[in-house]
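Comment thread on ticket #2218

A.B. wrote:
> Attaching the input chain for the structure job we discussed in standup.
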Amino acid sequence: MDELELVAFEIISNVGMAKSLAMEAIRESRNGNFEVAEKKVEEAKGFLLEGHHAHSGLIQDEANGKKLEFSLIIMHAEDQLMSAETIKDLAIELIEMNKEIKNK
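C.D. wrote:
> Ran it. Output below, let me know if you need it in another format.
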């Protein structure tokens, strides 16, 4: 496995955890467990940050003149990164919405 594939799998692994935690946060908020939900979102943010760091390393390499070949694995990793980021943002909004519903 080459360096590019290792970075791709690092991104996929981290953002996969982030996505799972964000989904768990939504479920917890639906059950009124808002503290647990918010902790899961914070944990998801940490995994997303790790994914972003790995991705940023690739961008820096390319900016410094290192030629990166097209790779479906990297394309998949980037897709998963953006998907996880979106789900995390939606989780934050759904937690707030569930708080409002529970308080009425």
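A.B. wrote:
> Thanks. Noting for the ticket: Residues 33 and 52 are 29 Å apart (CA to CA).
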